[in-house]
């Protein structure tokens, strides 16, 4: 009689359905060779740690200390003493020079920023139509943005607009005897604003990049319909360029509120003549480092941050009515 044996049913299990199929269970991986999620997060934090450490030590910690000092009376030498909101109350009730610095700063922003953006857009339009030498002129016009923020350029600017300087001699030759602009209360702020306008290279490059993204067929269709250059500029260029214009407007406005070096160099650090160039940041520097009222200066710094935040929020709010995005759907 033949000896027959029956194999266990489990031995006939299909390939890949045994215990080996669950070897990746609980590891959190979704494919072979991919590290677990916790390991990936740990690696990300390792690479982010220099930035996190720098932001914490160089930005967040100084901001926290400045916020604390704004509620204290601190003269850089003695320990700070808590005085509550006295610095903030004094700013608007007992300090007329602060109000003057606010007025000068607002006037500077309203004059310098529109002129700078208008010149940057005009030069960008001229460069767009050029076929030869565009790269050279773009670099040449961008150079002042790299050099203009330095103290050396500000001192040269002061010499140009000083009594007997280049501008004074040129104006005298034309029959206008104004004298040194930096010595005249009505012209000193204008000279500082012109230095900012001269640094139009950065917004110009951004405008040029935006102009190159506008489809050329829009201008061709407008020309077929009989639209002239001004009509094309108002109906095509400005609407299509409005996001770039908005970006430059926000960026340059924030920078203008923080202007310091030109005013310091032109006025010799005093905000003169007759406080005509006493900008907010210059007065903040004077109260903090010249008069040693660091608690008061810290309060001024936080008010400047609040003012910039409010102005930026207003710009974003009003942008809904004039900024056009090409990917927006009608309705």
UniProtKB/TrEMBL annotation:
Keywords: Cell membrane, Membrane, Transmembrane, Transmembrane helix, Transport. Residues 1-39 are annotated as: Disordered. Pfam families: BPD_transp_1. It comes from Streptomyces bathyalis. SUPFAM superfamilies: MalF N-terminal region-like, MetI-like. InterPro entries: ABC_transporter_permease, MetI-like, MetI-like_sf. GO terms for cellular component: plasma membrane. This is Sugar ABC transporter permease. It is a multi-pass membrane protein. It is found in: Cell membrane. One of its GO terms (biological process) is transmembrane transport.
């Amino acid at each position: 009689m033949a000896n027959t044996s029956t194999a266990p049913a489990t031995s006939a299990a299909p390939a890949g359905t045994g215990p080996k199929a669950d070897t990746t269970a609980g590891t959190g991986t979704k494919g072979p060779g991919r590290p677990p999620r916790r390991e990936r997060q740990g690696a990300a934090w390792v690479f982010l740690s220099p930035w996190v450490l720098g932001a914490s030590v160089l930005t967040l910690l100084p901001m926290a200390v400045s916020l604390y000092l704004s509620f204290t009376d601190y003269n850089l030498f003695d320990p700070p003493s808590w005085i509550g909101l006295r610095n903030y109350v004094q700013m608007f009730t007992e300090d007329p020079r602060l109000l003057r610095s606010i007025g000068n700063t607002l006037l500077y922003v309203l004059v310098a920023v529109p002129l700078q953006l208008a010149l940057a857009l005009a030069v960008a339009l001229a460069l767009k139509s050029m076929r030869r030498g565009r790269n050279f002129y773009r670099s040449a016009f961008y150079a002042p943005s790299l050099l203009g923020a330095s103290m050396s350029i500000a001192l040269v600017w002061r010499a140009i607009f000083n009594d007997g300087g280049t501008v004074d001699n040129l104006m005298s030759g034309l029959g206008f005897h104004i004298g040194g602009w930096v010595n005249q209360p009505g012209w000193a702020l204008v000279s500082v604003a012109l230095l900012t306008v001269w640094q139009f290279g950065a917004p110009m490059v951004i405008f040029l990049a935006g102009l190159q993204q506008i489809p050329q067929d829009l201008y061709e269709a407008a020309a077929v319909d009989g639209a002239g250059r001004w009509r094309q500029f108002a109906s095509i260029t400005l609407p299509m360029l409005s996001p770039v214009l908005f970006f430059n407007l926000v960026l340059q406005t924030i920078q203008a509120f923080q202007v310091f070096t030109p005013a310091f160099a032109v006025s010799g650090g005093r905000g003169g003549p007759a406080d005509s160039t006493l900008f907010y940041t210059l007065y903040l520097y004077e109260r903090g480092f010249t008069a040693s009222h660091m608690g008061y200066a810290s309060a001024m710094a936080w008010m400047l941050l609040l003012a910039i935040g409010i102005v930026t929020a207003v710009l974003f709010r009003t942008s809904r009515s004039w900024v056009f995005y090409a990917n927006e759907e009608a309705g």
